[in-house]
Write a structure and sequence with these properties.
The structure is a homotetramer of 257-residue chains. By secondary structure, the first copy, chain A, is an alpha/beta fold. Chain A is built from 6 helices and 12 strands. In chain A, the strands form 2 sheets. Chain A has an 8-stranded mixed beta sheet with strand order 1-3-6-7-2-8-11-9, with helices on both faces. A two-stranded antiparallel sheet of chain A has the order 4-5.
Chain lengths: 257, 257, 257, 257
């Protein structure tokens, strides 16, 4: 069960959708979240799924809410934007596909003509200034994005796992242009936020969107987001750990099969 | 497949639903079960799910029954109560959401105006007298519950995992007020019952419901419940262990892919 | 997807269903399979499920077939019998419930008035002559089966995991009498066949059914069945092992999230 | 959700379907892929499934696409062929059955009269020249294929895991003849390509189809395919590893159940 609840039905034109969910270095989530804040984008829809981890998040005041994906809009000069952020991705392969398709349903509803997904590219021996690697879903886009300091090289990247990848792949079948922008990062452990990677994708994104935002508070924001996301991640890991620890215990019981 | 079978269709007014299922320290299960016993609440419905662990429980006399969730009612002076207890939670993320929604269907059927979920808050370095931490699903409830010795602090708790949390989150979407009451506990290993935590949530609950029940037999009851619940937990862990132990074996076989 | 294919539509009266699938010590499978052979029971239906392990079994001549559950009938003097044997149980909790319900659909189609499930009761420190422990699904059956050397004691057994248990529990909801007969066994490793346990449940079963069968070839049959079942089990374990071994490997790759 | 998208609707007669997906030694995938290339077979359909691993594959030029199964046709002298290759099999038991049934839907649409599945048979102590072991889905086929240097011996092979096996088993229920051809291989680790095994199944296949193809470039092709497939496999293993590594970590968190 996936449900998208609309808080508002904005009129949008010439729409570009930007997606950034938790993932490697939380680069996509940090970059898209920062964009929401700096553009003062407005929350118009929320998506809930029974494939999300079965828990609620507590806000500082003691109010709990379900894990969710949030949709924001921003009315710009050249393009209106839909920005997709959220608490989590999915917990099963099918859940990833369903979530990606539900996001594409929103894209189609608003006649989105380009989807940009943001993420990290984990490289074990990486250090230094991150490059931004791109993946598009048709050949014309290689031409369109060739002058944006994006590296297109299938030898550098094998796969894009999760919603950032699936949106690009599924959009092709629906005939929607899409590009994934991935900043190089160390990537382990995955819960550590990488604001430097987020900055790298935001710099490319600003050029594509032809907008200017102040990146000076990015690191501070990244640290706060990291704390929030870490909590959720840790609970999930802890529960997995609990289940697996059954393995080490060795109690005397009689049972039946 | 989830099925709720009604044994009786009680007429209830001004209904508060109280939920306590197995979890950290089994605090919710112990507290709600003790309430059922002391109020002589009456069993009116049973819920079965194909997402529960695939086994039956043997009662002392040799009669087996499916794992289930039980609904009890109690007709009180100020409020009628529905108390939800049971043998288990769910085995998949989707199963947790489905179970929580099926419980909310019962809440709606009886026009429940407040849901109170009971549980434990595991803190690794906790010792001493447990405090009760709360989580509500809207701002008005912070005001309503501010004088009940409940601590509201999102920094203390990050997430509430399982039915206790999901009921609060999903009720918000359905427009039903809900609060989770969580007693501090050590929480590991999770199968050890914590009657002291159960007492803490019951003391707050009695004040909210404005009823008085004798807590003197709580510890004894807790120990008996613990034994029952432990059996079910251990079977589940044992089966997981069996599967994982495949890893360590190393037999000579030829196989095909 | 579960599909039951009928090869024949027998007319049966006063029907008792006997179930024995692979499990602890393969006691149920051995006992029910031996019954099929000695009574020359006739195969009239096959059940296929997409929840079974995704493989085919090769017969000696090089012909492959899907994993399946088989239904046999035997027209007896006092009772006609339906005997349920098969290659496997299920792979998910939901799969277990679905399989058990599909078997109950067959029971209802032939107006079965008693279901007897056969299995093993693993006890770590067990040795010697196995007793047969019983579990029924209503109180009247305790009276009916009190003179058959069946031990009814919920303290001895906590749960019955798998189809043998679920059939008893689910039959109660459908109003069908059911009893599980479980022979004590060491139970580890679960792939080792226990013909002594199988003999114990068969002795009780013969008394209940009031039939006589020659048990002298049971051990030989058990060893052959063991070989067949072991192959299937080992393939399943090997695949799980393959997946888990990913954990220990540590290759240099770059990937994206 | 499984979707088969047709790029073309070819008219085919007297059709044999050949399947080769990634598996043990990638023998089936290499053999079928080589056949596609050497026969210049034409891609006419693509199958997408939400049970596939949730990622996209990057091609060398930076264009990403979903994981998929591809159908090719070749109009031959005696038989027209449908060749099925792809990036992956499935991620759940149900996914394997659904995928196999979706492939059989294509077989039925084109009135396929024989299905030949290609794969490897892993034998731990195997070395030397691989034999080809066969498995058919009815007795008449044993006679039909007795003169093709195929070994039929159920003692040599216990099970055939995955689509290669399920196609043979499920085709029997639909009344379609099918044979699995499996070359002996060492099989571990499973990501290492075995072009020698692929050559062995291709030699038998050429005789059955009565066609001649040049096998001299097989090893080179195998190495390139291996690189591609390895990338996908490693991402999948890495993700599993990430999840399992949660087990070893031991952070101080407070959580709730």
């Amino acid at each position: 069960m996936i449900e998208t609840i609309y808080l508002e039905e904005p009129k949008l034109n010439n729409v570009i959708m930007i997606e950034g969910l938790p993932g490697i270095g939380n680069i996509g989530r940090i970059a898209a979240g920062y964009l929401v804040e700096k553009l003062k984008a407005k929350n118009f829809a929320e998506l809930y799924s029974s494939d999300f981890f079965p828990s609620v998040i507590l806000q500082k005041d003691g109010i709990a809410r379900l894990l969710r994906i949030e949709f924001y809009y921003y009315k710009g000069e050249k393009n209106d934007l839909i920005i997709v952020i959220g608490d989590t991705q999915a917990s099963t392969p099918e859940g990833y596909y369903d979530l990606s398709n539900a996001i594409l349903d929103v894209a189609r509803k608003f006649d989105v003509n380009l989807i940009i997904t943001l993420g990290g590219l984990a490289r074990e021996e990486f250090s230094g200034k991150p490059r931004v690697v791109g993946a598009v879903n048709n050949e014309k886009l290689l031409e369109r994005f060739k002058n944006y300091e994006i590296i297109f090289d299938g030898n550098l990247v094998g796969s894009i796992v999760g919603v950032s990848g699936l949106l690009v792949g599924l959009a092709a079948i629906r005939g929607i242009d899409a590009i994934s922008l991935l900043a190089e990062t160390t990537g382990f452990p995955i819960v550590i936020a990488d604001p430097i990677g987020a900055e790298a994708v935001l710099r490319v994104l600003m050029k594509i969107l032809d907008i200017e935002i102040d990146l000076s508070e990015l690191e501070k924001e990244a640290r706060e987001l990291e704390k929030k996301i870490k909590k959720t991640e840790e609970f999930q890991k802890r529960m997995i750990k609990e289940i697996l620890s059954a393995k080490e215990e060795n109690k005397e019981v009689s049972y039946i099969g």
